[in-house]
Amino acid sequence: MTFEGYLRTIKDRTGLGPDDFVRLAADRGLTGPAVKAGDVIRWLAADYGLGRGHAMAIVAVLKGTAPAGVVTPAGPSGAPPRDDARKGAAVARGGGRGAVEEGAAAGGAGEVRGRG
């Protein structure tokens, strides 16, 4: 499933888009590059019934590490999100499950692997 596919499924299941989750996470202090994935995963599982793969897509949005061309809102400090300088590298790791990886092609949509 592509990164955008995960975000569409999340919106279908919860009625909330990436910007909504950024706002909700900010209310809980769960935004920015230092946010702990485990904290976000637990929150999203408890409140929205999201699995690890879908939660990791939201973690990537919150950390500003979503693939280039995908929603990457600035963190709470107002610093710009990371750009695509890490093309081809894994941008979020989930112990082999739910890893968010960017496609090798420039402007690639990226893909989220794992269950969720």
UniProtKB/TrEMBL annotation:
<dbReference type="InterPro" id="IPR025629">
    <property type="entry name" value="DUF4287"/>
</dbReference>
<feature type="compositionally biased region" description="Gly residues">
    <location>
        <begin position="105"/>
        <end position="116"/>
    </location>
</feature>
<feature type="region of interest" description="Disordered">
    <location>
        <begin position="72"/>
        <end position="116"/>
    </location>
</feature>
<dbReference type="Pfam" id="PF14117">
    <property type="entry name" value="DUF4287"/>
</dbReference>
<protein>
    <submittedName>
        <fullName>DUF4287 domain-containing protein</fullName>
    </submittedName>
</protein>
